[in-house]
Amino acid sequence: MTTQRKITVEVTNETNEVLEPILNDQIVKVIERVLDSENIDVDCEVSVLFVDNPRIQALNSEYRHKDVETDVLSFPQYDSIKDDGFMEDYLYLGDIVISLEKARAQAHDFGHTFERELLYLIVHSVLHLLGYDHMVDEAKGEMRQKEKEIFKQIEVFKTSN
Description:
alpha/beta; Collagenase (Catalytic Domain); four-stranded mixed β-sheet; 7 helices
């Protein structure tokens, strides 16, 4: 899908970890791919915040009442874009918070690169921002299938699997 859509991605890194500048470009491309998969062709904005484990644990406790570290939190602006067909000229999709510590540990545990894990978490989170969920088996299957379809389209994953 070729679109004239403009995607604004605000990336903030609250950690001391220095990320490769090319990663920001990859994040935007991955977000574009997810939006393409949902036929969203209006201008969009997403905020991505990188934090450490204590910070994401505090956010998880505050907003989800779960006092544990997690890899990623998604804060959608809308209940569901995918189900409601909600469409305007401009969409602020919401906020994504990723623990770089947790992402690095998971990459090691799963035997793939840190970059792959980080970009997977972006795909996963943007799908949440669009209304996908994995709390029940049927919805989980739909979300996992969508993730797989998107991954097949992203070159960075073709070389790391």
